Amino acid sequence: MSQFLLSVVNISKSFPGVRALDNVSLHIEKGKVHALMGENGAGKSTLMKILMGMETPDAGTITCKGKQVQFRSVQDAMQSGLAMIHQELLPFPELSVAENIFMGREPVLFPGWINRKKLYSDATALLTELQLDISPTDLMKELSIAAMQMLEIARAISNNADIIIMDEPTSAISGREVGILFDIIRKLTSRGIAVIYISHKMDEILQIADTITVMRDGKHIVTKPADEFDNDKLIRLIVGRELNSIFNKKQSPPGAVLLEVKGLSGEGFSGIHFSARRGEILGIAGLMGAGRTEIVETIFGLRKASGGAVFVNGKAMTHPSPSAAIRNGIGLIGEDRKQTGLVLSASVRHNITMASLNKWSGIFLDRAKEQQISREQIQRFGIRTPSEEQTANNLSGGNQQKIVLSKVLLNDPDIIIFDEPTRGIDIGAKAEIYQMITGLAERGKAIIMISSELPEILGLSDRILVVREGKITKELAASEASQELIMQYAMTHTAN
Amino acid sequence: MKNVSQVFSRYGILLSLVCICMVLSFITPSFFSAQNLLIVLRQVSINGILAIGVTFVIIVGGIDLSLGSVVALTGVVAASFAHPDTYPLVVPLTLALLTGMAIGALNGVTITRGKVAPFIVTLGMMTIARGLALVGSNGRPVTNLSPSFNYIGGGNLLQIPVPILLFVLVIIGATVILNRTRIGRYIYAVGGNETAARASGIRVNRVKMFSYIICSLLAALAGIILASRITTGQPNAGVAYELDAIAAVVIGGTSLLGGKGSITGTVIGVLIIGVINNGLDLLNVSSYYQQIIKGVLIIGAALLDRKASR
Q: Structure pTM?
C-alpha cells in the first residue's frame, strides 16, 4: 500500500470546447499541506470538484486510503473523509454556531427529536479542542468571515474528515486572522490531517505549504517540496506559456484621448485614473476579484460610483446609467454573458436588436427591417444558429458571445469595453474574437479589454494596466510587459 | 416524438379549449348556440380585460394583487359621477380611468424607486383601494345611474354586447403593443433578464411603470363595465378578481417568472375558464364543484407547462 492518503491518477475531464483536465495526477500525503497553484482556468477548481464528487471524470482513477473510489456525490466524498472549505461560505445565518456545525447530523434523543443538550456540549468540546474563542450559542450571522471559516473547518473535523480542501481561504480575511488560520492548519497537520491549499498568494503558500503542485491549461506541470521554490520560479512556472500566433496585431500610433477616468472609486476599488485613446487596445490585467469588473461596470453606469468622474471626449458624464453610456458611445461586452449580456429566454433576433431598437425604430417596430438587420449580423459575425427564432439559451458559449458582440456593436460605439471576452469559449471562436477586436482598434475605436489570460493581454494590448485589490498597481507599455512582470504586480504585496 | 411535444407545447392549450368545447357540445345541446356563446363571451369579458392587464405585469416579472379592489374603487368613482342629468358621460369615464392610472403609477413608483417587492406593494394597494372605495361610497352601493352609463355594460351594438366589443378592442390593442412596439419588446426583455436589459440601455424603471399603469388602467375599464352592468357602484365588488385573472394568465402558459407569455395564451386561458364555468352551469353542477375544477385546471396547466419546458 502506498503512503498516500489520496491518489489521483491520470484524471481527464472535458467540457464542450474545453479540455479542463488532461491526464492530471496528484498524491496527497498524511499530515502535509499540499498547495495547488495555477492561473484562473488552469483546472484547479475542476480537479477539486471531481474530488468532492461534484463532477465525474472522463478518465482516470482516484484511490483513497488504499481503496479505489468513485465519488458520485458530495456525500460519497465526505464519507471517504474529504471536506472542502469553500471560497463562498454558505452558513445558515439565523441558526446558532452549534446548529450550523452539526447541520444534517444532529444528535437525536429519538428519531426526529434533536438532543439539544448533547448538541451544545459536543459543539463546546469541539470548539475547545480547536481552541476557538467562539460560543456555540452565538448566531452565525454575528460572526466574522474568519470565524465562519474556522467553523467550517471545525465542522469538517467533527465529520471525521482527514483531507481538507481549502479554496482561497484567505481571500476575505485580514492578516491577523491569516495567522490564526495558519495556527489551526498546523494543528490539523500535527493530527495527521492532510490539507489541500489553493491560493494565488505566493507569500502565504511559501509560508504554509510542504509540497507545491503547479497546474497550467489543465495539465500537471510540477510537484516538488516547497523549499525548492521561490517567488520568481513559481511565477515562471504558473505562466510559462509561449505566445501563440493567433494574435496578429499591428502596432499603430494611438490617436486622440476618447475616455478619461479620473479618481473613480466605488465598491471594491478606489482612486482609479486612466485614459483610453482611439486605435488603442488598453489591457487590464489582474486576478479574479481584484476589482476589474467593478471598475468597468461603474464606467458603464451599471454600478454606482462613490467618487471621481468619467469623461468622454472631454465632457464629464453626469447621471451615469447604461443608457447614458450608450448614448455617449460606450459599449460593454460583459464578463458574464448569461447574466448581463443575454435574455436567454428571448430569440437570437430579439437579443441582437435589443440595444439598438431606438436607433432605427419608432414607437412601432419595423419587423421587416429588424429581420434584415439580424440576418446581416448573423452573417457578419458568423453566428451559428439553426434560425434567428432560436432562443439564445440553446446556443454554445462562443455563439452567445458573438450575439452579445453584435448587439453592442450595432450601436456603433467608439469606446468598447471587453470583460473577459473569451472566457469559456473554444479556441476557434477565440481567434475570431481576437480578429474582431484588433479590427475594431484599427478602425479607430478605443478598446479596453479585461482578461485573466495573460497571453491574450500581451498579444493584443498596446498598454497594460495591472490591478490588484481595487487599485492600479502598474501601467506597462506593451514593449516592456511580460507575463512574469504582470503577475508580479498582480499577486505580490510589495511592488518593486 | 419531439415534434409531437413541440406541437403540444405550442398549441396545447388551444387544443384543450377545442376539446372542452367539443365535449360540452355533445353532452349539453344548448352549449353550442350563438346565443350561449355570446353569453360566455360577455361573462368572460371583465375577467378577460383584467387578465390582459396583468399579463403585462407578469411578463415584466411582477405581479398585481390590487386589481379586484381597483375594479371596485373605479366603479364607485365612475358611478358617483354618472347620476342622470349631472355630468356628461366622459366625466365619469375619464375620472375612473385616471384613478386607475394613478394607482398603477403609485404601484410602479413604489416598486421601481422604493425597491419593494411587487407582491407586497400591490397587496398593500389591494386594501388601500378597497378602503378608498368604501370611504368614497360611505360603504353603500352607489345607485341611480344614467341610461347612457348603463349602456356600456348592458347595451348591444350590432347585436353584440358592448363588453364583448371592448374586450376585443383590448385584445387587439394589447397584442399590438406587446408584439409590434418597442415598449412591448422591452417588456419581454426586462422580464427575461433585468440586468441584461439595463446593460442594453433599456430604461427598466420606465418599462415597469408602463406595465403597472396599463394593468391598472385596464382594471379601471373593467370597473366601469362592471358598475354599468350591475347599474351600481358597488364598493364590495371585485373581491378576488385578481386571482381569477392571474389564473387565466397561468392557464394560458405565461410564466410567473417573467419574460415569456402572450395575449393569445391569456385569452385562451380566459375562455377555458369561462367555457368550463358555463358548461358546468348548463349541467347544473353546483358552483362549489366549479371552484374545485378551476383549481385542478390551474395546477394541471402549470404541470403541463413544466413538462413541456423540460
A: 0.78
